[in-house]
Amino acid sequence: MRRRLETTLIGVRRVGNWVNLSTPLGLGIAKAGGCRTKSGPRGLRLAGGYRLAFPYAPAFTVGNVLISRTEWSDASPKLLAHEEPHTWQWLMCAGLPFLPLYGVATAWSWLRTGDRGAGNVFEQRAGLATGGYRARPSRPLVAGIRAAAWAGGGWIRKRWGRSRGGGPNGRADVRPASAADA
Ligand SMILES: [Zn+2]
After folding, report:
1. Cα–Cα 20 to 30 A to 179, which of 73, 107, 114, 120?
2. How far is Cα 175 from Cα 69, in angstroms, rounded to an integer?
3. What's the gap in Å between 124 CA and the centre of ligand 1?
């Protein structure tokens, strides 16, 4: 009985994420990133060898497509265990609305914890530890807003300084990226 329910849910996820266009988007991103894609367990698609700079993450999930910078044969079961819940989140969000919702959750997480993942409900539900995130104490929202204003001010000062100082096109250097995944 339980097995039949699981099979049904997996079928719903496969069809749902195809119809809501998230799986086609994932396959397109995997292709653009130069991935080799193969079938995984439970109707998942495993794409390995992602090469584009964005998003900066060792692995991320779009629809039913789990995209990793390494090959999936090398990837740990822990990675699969973390990324698969994101496929259900794409389904729950009816596909593409996942992206702005994830963006809001990331911003909220940063304001509350200073980290993109620790306070992000999508990452909490997928599993912070398996995703390489560390749980962090939350800070008052006011402190987060102050930190954001400070960081924004620093960015503007840097940009302003560079454009006057004549750096290449006045652009700021590539910002340091966090090692956490999506
Ligand atoms: Zn994640």
Report:
1. 73
2. 20
3. 8
